[in-house]
């Protein structure tokens, strides 16, 4: 899970698209988990719409911002790795 979270963060940082970088990174991370670890996908949204403002999206963005600053713990907690 930690490898997928770090992979996800790198994908978001690359920011290859004007829109949809988070969706792309989440899909790529889930494929990474399946292909390399035979692990089920992350519950990214947990029933919430990550495109709309809500507590799950706020936590997701905050976790990514913390990872930008070098603190991966919030992102690892978000994906359930710790």
List the helices and strands and how they pair.
Layout: H1 2-14, H2 21-37, H3 55-68, H4 73-79
Helix pairs in contact: 1-2, 3-4
How would you sum up this structure in a few lines?
Helix content is 62%, strand content 0%. The protein has helices at 2-14, 21-37, 55-68, 73-79.
Please characterize this protein's 3D structure:
- This protein has 82 residues and is mostly helical.
- Helices cover 62% and strands 0% of the residues.
- The protein is built from 4 helices and no strands.
- The relative contact order is 0.20.
Kindly give the count of domains: 1
State the distance separating the first and last CA atoms.
9 Å
Spans of at least 5 consecutive residues whose pLDDT stays below 50 are none
Q: Specify the structural class.
A: mainly alpha
Strand proportion: under 5%
Q: Rough shape? A: globular
Mean pLDDT: 93
What integer value in Å does the Rg equal? 12 Å
Number of strands: 0
Helical region count? 4
Question: Could you list some keywords that capture this structure?
Answer:
single chain; 82 residues
